[in-house]
Protein: NAD(P)/FAD-dependent oxidoreductase
Amino acid sequence: MTLTIAIVGAGIGGLAAAAALSGAGHRVVVFDRFDAPAPVGSGLVIQPVGQAVLDGLSVGDTARRRGAKVHRMLGRDADSGRRVLDVSYDAPGVPRYGLAMHRAALFDVLHDAATAAGAEIRPGHRVTAVEAGAVRFAAGPEGPGGQDGPFDLVVDASGAGSVLSPMRARALSYGALWATVDWPDTTTLPYNELRQVYRRADRMLGVLPVGHLPGGEARKCAIFWSLPAGAQDDWRAAGLQAWRAEASALWPEYAPFAAQITDPAQMTMARYSHGTLRRPWSDGGRLVHIGDAAHRASPQLGQGANMALLDAWALARALERAQGDVALAARWYAQARRWHVRGYQGMSRLFTSQYQSDSRVLPLLRDRVLFPLSQVSPLPGVLTRLVCGDLLPPLGSLSN
Structure:
């Protein structure tokens, strides 16, 4: 059964849904508020569960050529140099890795997949409401006004700023500044590891290899600097020289990366929140929320983009099994994703305060108790599966 489907938002989840649903034979239109769809943000890691979705969309190999394979996450205490985080993807007999990419590279891969599958992408359409399957648009500079539809199904993939989602998320006290820079020739850091350094939990800085930008050959990386969510203005006021000096004192190897930041505008502030829709659908299943419009969490486990990919894939599989019954498919999608989402959100919440907070006690617990325990069998294997994204079944009953 061929359905008419509107997708609101041309981000990771929206484009993945467009590729999957168009590939299944449905007529798909993607509405995006920007004049030209574009990615927002810097680096991310596609975990093995997310890579499986890319493979299902037949773009996994393309993504791997553009990204960087990350085999280990290593974090050290700034003062002592002790390891306080050490997770390897390569569990015995199960060689896996995280695929670190710039958002622009992943965007290009998914955009090409969606258009090749037949999805129509309409930029310059800011969606303001959905009623009975009809999509309404802002008028004036932000859109053409009027409405389109009704559609058999509307997928809200418009992210944390969704005006369609009823979710009320709780803002987290810490965020991070991100930037993309060149991989320095002088660095001794390995290009297949995510490296981080912590001072207690109020400072976290890191370097993530991300492969290549679209159309470029130079090796790139994402750098980040944790700080309170409302402290960006204070950071700017202190000046880049003071920031580079502090960062280099905490982690000397960070200096050639930080030296490439010559304008505060190169650093983009990411703010995080926690929240979950108890029921990620409404209007009898005709409006379904995926990705950050349905659930949000801190980035500690590196699952954000993967959750959006898994949501898109689960929705497509649910529609296929329900043979076009959108009400049934919406319920199956929600059931399939419920425990994976809630489980990872809960674990992310536990980790967040250990790495991004003003607590003096939790970092001690992390460094002196939890990290030593994490190196004792069988916990290394459990942590590997946690990071890979399949400690809990990612698609629930839709896995088979």
The chain has one domain: 4-170+273-398. The first strand starts at residue 4 and ends at 8. The CA atoms of residues 78 and 199 lie 5 Å apart.
